[in-house]
Specification:
With about 500 residues, this protein is α/β, with parallel strands linked by helices. The chain folds into 4 domains: about 120 residues, Cobalt-precorrin-4 Transmethylase, domain 1, CATH 3.40.1010; about 130 residues, Methyltransferase, Cobalt-precorrin-4 Transmethylase, Domain 2 (2-Layer Sandwich), CATH 3.30.950.10; about 110 residues, Rossmann fold (3-Layer(aba) Sandwich); about 130 residues, 3-Layer(aba) Sandwich (Rossmann fold), CATH 3.40.50. The protein is about 35% helix and about 20% strand. The chain has 18 helices and 22 strands. The strands form 5 sheets. It has a 5-stranded parallel beta sheet with strand order 3-2-6-1-7, sandwiched between helices. A 5-stranded mixed beta sheet has the order 8-9-12-10-11, sandwiched between helices. The chain has a 5-stranded parallel beta sheet with strand order 14-13-20-21-22, sandwiched between helices. Strand 21, helix 17 and strand 22 form a beta-alpha-beta unit. Helix 9 runs parallel beside helix 18. About 45% of the residues are buried. The N terminus is likely disordered. It binds S-adenosyl-L-homocysteine. S-adenosyl-L-homocysteine binds next to helix 4, strand 10 and strand 12.
């Protein structure tokens, strides 16, 4: 975004895509990252808000239980007012902003007010929804045109805007947005105007997300089916011969974790790796941040130890957060990497080792097993520990098994408290609300502190929710809190955990 525009402010009318985080454009992400104000809708995936800056003002403008948080005039006025304050405003809408999203009205209001704006098109649910259900909206053999129409009309219009006679005559593929609740009467009108009763129809709800469900039928029976299974909004309806292609092309709903709702409990920054893997396998992921990384209580003491790091024989890192906190401070104190001196580096676990390597430093010792006891064993393999000076960079209140054991063997150990974890109290993405309302099949724990922090939130445990743990220490903590651990990773990292979950569900009979 250009700086020169800052004085006058600008509104970006941004399409957030149909719900899947991978289907957001690069431009949309850029706009979200830079925005001072984000006005978002019900159907814009709230996970995208995690990309916003800490200081961004987030304003919900969507519908809540049938009531609009803000009406259209209020939204228009808000966008104009914020832009006139000189701010970069993102108006975030589901799908594409100019496809049935009242984006046209908002753009017109901005133009009338003389406010600059940019349109960032998005992937519309009208195309992506069918695609994720295995339905191509066009297919050479079946049709040569597509029609998009809305089943939800402007109530102020005197006559029906849906020209059923024209739709019936037109044929081809017809995609309807909104109005699933009126599907029965819409289908009836179509048949009345001569469309054949056995025309294939599909409804795709929460398309492209882990909650996607598809219902198929014919024009004649779709209304009854919707009622029978209680199929409700948001859904896209597809009418036409192309629906039959789904039989061969259904791909997304066949993934190994399709239909499984999985809670990922991590800090916002770390969550994405696990969530991405689980989503790629088709899971519906609720990213529930329970903790936040904060600077240590005694930053001065930590700074002193970082400054003295070069006087040690070894630095031991026990987590990626520790590596980050250490080097962030290190490079504030020094502008030359060589100030680290001849100190050797040990890292527990591959993710920790990777963070060290990201800083272009060699990892001298990386235990096979990712637990503190194994580090001690590795040190012993390397020879005498007597009088070795070791600095352990770790979280406040973490287990001190490592320093005790190393000290017992004669090492001189100092502990640098690099960061502390505190309970995450914000729920910007509505994750907690979703967990309360919809429950989950599985919750993942990637450290003892994620167990403790999740339980500290005091949320009711959803019925049937099972536990997956990254390794024996995390499992032990879970059991100590009375939880039953159904899955434990063999490899104690994100990949190992994902694999264990995949395997668990591939041998479990599905209950659907
Ligand atoms: N601008 C949006 C549409 C806004 S109208 C777009 O381009 O997708 C809202 C309607 O979009 C909903 O009633 C529903 O019909 C459809 N919709 C949006 N996201 C959807 C999703 N993930 N799954 C199914 N339907 C969706």
């Amino acid at each position: 975004m250009s700086k020169s525009r800052k004085e006058s402010g600008i509104v970006y009318l941004v399409g957030a895509g149909p719900g899947n985080l991978g289907l957001v454009t690069l431009r949309a992400k850029e706009c979200i990252e830079c925005a001072a104000v984000i006005v978002y809708d019900h159907l814009a995936n709230p996970e995208t808000l995690a990309w916003a800056g800490q200081a961004a003002e987030l304003i919900y403008a969507g519908k809540r239980a049938g009531e609009h948080a803000l009406n259209q005039q209020q939204i228009n006025a808000l966008l104009i007012a914020k832009a006139r304050e000189g701010k970069e405003v993102v108006r975030l809408k589901g799908g594409d902003p100019f496809v049935f999203g009242r984006g046209a009205e908002e753009a017109k209001a901005l133009a009338d007010a003389g406010v600059s704006f940019e349109i960032v098109p998005g992937i519309t649910s009208a195309i992506a929804g069918p695609a994720f259900a295995g339905i191509p909206v066009t297919s050479r053999a079946e049709n040569s045109h597509v029609t998009f129409f809305t089943g939800h009309e402007d109530p102020s219009k005197a006559t029906s805007a849906i020209d059923y006679a024209a739709l019936a005559k037109l044929g081809g593929t017809q995609v309807m947005l909104m109005g699933v609740e009126r599907i029965e009467s819409i289908a009836r009108e179509m048949m009345k105007h001569g469309v054949r009763q056995d025309l294939p129809v599909a409804l795709v709800r929460w398309a492209t997300t882990g909650r996607q469900e598809t219902l198929t039928g014919t024009l004649k029976d779709i209304g009854r089916r919707v009622v029978d299974v209680g199929f409700d909004a948001p859904a896209v309806a597809v009418f036409g011969e192309v629906v039959a292609l789904r039989e061969n092309l259904n791909w997304y709903e066949k993934r190994p974790l399709s239909g499984k709702r999985i809670v990922v409990t991590r800090t916002r920054k770390q969550a994405s790796a696990l969530s991405e893997r689980l989503r790629a396998l088709g899971a519906d992921v609720i990213e529930l941040p329970t903790i936040r990384i904060e600077p240590p209580s005694d930053l001065r003491e930590f700074a002193e130890l970082v400054q003295e790091a070069h006087t040690y024989d070894w630095i031991v890192f026990t987590s990626p957060n520790g590596v980050e906190a250490f080097f962030e401070l290190f490079f504030k104190l020094y502008d030359d990497a060589r100030e680290i001196g001849a100190v050797k580096i040990a890292a527990i676990g591959p993710a920790t080792a990777q963070r060290v390597k990201d800083f272009h430093l060699h990892v001298d010792l990386q235990p096979e097993e990712f637990v503190a006891e194994a580090v001690v064993r590795e040190f012993q393999k390397q020879g005498m520990l007597e009088n070795l000076r070791i600095l352990i960079a770790r979280a406040e209140k973490a287990r001190d098994v490592l320093s005790n054991q190393l000290a017992k063997l004669g090492a001189i150990v100092d502990e640098a408290f690099a960061y502390r974890t505190v309970a995450e109290t914000r729920d910007d993405t509505g994750a907690r609300q979703r967990l309360l309302e919809e429950g989950a099949d599985l919750i993942t724990f990637t450290s003892s502190s994620t167990v403790e922090n999740f339980l500290a939130l005091g949320l009711p445990w959803p019925n049937q929710m099972q536990v997956a743990s990254i390794g024996p220490i995390t499992s032990k903590t879970a059991r100590e809190h009375g939880l039953k651990v159904s899955i434990e990773a063999k490899r104690h990292d994100i990949e190992g955990l994902t694999e264990a979950i995949r395997r668990f569900y591939s041998i479990q009979p599905t209950d659907e």
